[in-house]
């Protein structure tokens, strides 16, 4: 298929191109990150009369936002029963109310700004695909109703198969995420926001006026800095490396042989399966997502994740054609609630992270909340999402595992063996010994070879090769690099060191 591992949304949308900054400057509010969180924040600030500056390392909407499922919903898997168990019913009601506000914000903004993004109303369902998950769905339905959500309960529905029980949340929406963010960015610019892409922030110096250094050496000085970057550029004393857990998820878009019921669906158990309908020029496209795993910790052939999703889509509606396949990275927190708010008490550095794969609603919420914090000093729902909440104590097992796993992965990566360079196939990557040191090699389809020092530039863990996307992924904190060493995403700030570039035959001779 064409455009391997480029999302359907990125294949079918024209993203706005902004200039790069390229010089030192100053602004009152600087937003780092051009996904849905950053662009929503810029739009909301512009609506309030503030003229923020936004910088994006790549292209607008070029990160996780452009690789999502396209669901904007307050149905986030099994979550409301967990919140009640950890923080009580009041917190669950606050979560439901805040996420409802996010869905309504998107709905209103699409209408107000006339954004052509194929927004459609639907019902979001969570279902039990195994008998062992029935109790969890029943408990989630009960918790959702208590939290004020208009939720229905259906027993033994006909779709999808197998399905023992499901609960549905009415009045949710789906859309084309890249077209939405592109339209929102245009509306923000029209109201005074200034946007730059290809401008990467690498360092933030704290103070009354923050100094943000970009990759090209230019410095932006700002009183307020919003980190809408999935993983914060500036950590401070917050130990985000122990509080944000990177996850990868895979997705496909298909043209189907048979019709299928409308709506958004996700199962309650494992392996996770999430799917929805997208309509493009009158044609129904089936979007199927799942096969999640910890970044860099997936053994075996990653292309099997796509094959498993294709088999599932074929059972749902029959696969006539796969039109796109891709993956995305997001982060979880110990208690599965995002961090949205100040980096510390009275700080004017803000963070939005840990969306747990529900960033279209939580990112919209975060953008609006942070705009309120900046302009008024406070906002609704601040306490629920604050980084200062007791998430480490409410979820001690998750917190302990999240803190220890990177250490284990670091040690394990240093002890793992290497493979031989001979027999390396085009499109394959391996961990080898090069001049006595552990290294990563990739051979492309033109027989060009790149050998890299695969020690992650964040905290020194050795990387693993992802053969589905031809990337080097860190099993500790989710740093990801292209096969040529270019940094793609995650907490690292520097690319990998290139040890050799040349032809495969120059290394091994004629085979």
TrEMBL record:
Species of origin: Sporobacter termitidis DSM 10068
Domain Rieske: 424-510
SUPFAM superfamilies tied to this protein: ISP domain, Nucleotide-binding domain
Alphabetically ordered keywords of this record: 2Fe-2S, Iron, Iron-sulfur, Metal-binding
One function term, GO molecular function aspect: monooxygenase activity
Keyword Transport: no
This protein's GO CC annotations: cytoplasm
Name assigned to this protein: Glycine/D-amino acid oxidase
Domain of life, per lineage: Bacteria
